[in-house]
Design goal:
Blueprint lengths: L1 H17 L2 H10 L7 H21 L2 H22 L7
Helix pairs in contact: 1-4, 2-4, 3-4
Length: 89
């Protein structure tokens, strides 16, 4: 039974970690994150940072993977929100 819960924990963490991939990918391709609300990004990034510090303290590997990867992807979105790629026409 413990193995099932362990598997579910890892699976859920991986799925949640990669749910930001489409948004980060779209920001990379488009060169901007104009459609994403700034307040949303601030709350999301702060939530990721605060929770990552907590799970690092408790050394919960599935959640470290989740919040660590999500922080990478949110960083891409924030970067293109702050510095959109300029296309010379």
């Amino acid at each position: 039974m413990q193995e099932i819960f362990e598997f579910n924990g890892w699976l859920g963490s991986i799925l949640l970690a990669i749910c930001a991939v489409p948004l980060a990918y779209r920001s990379l391709i488009d060169g901007h994150s104009k459609g994403v609300d700034t307040i949303f990004l601030i709350i999301w990034a702060l939530g990721e940072i605060c929770t990552l510090t907590y799970v690092l303290y408790n050394w919960d590997l599935p959640l470290i993977l989740n919040y660590g990867l999500n922080l990478v992807f949110i960083s891409i979105v924030v970067y293109y929100k702050l510095k959109p790629r300029v296309i010379n026409e």
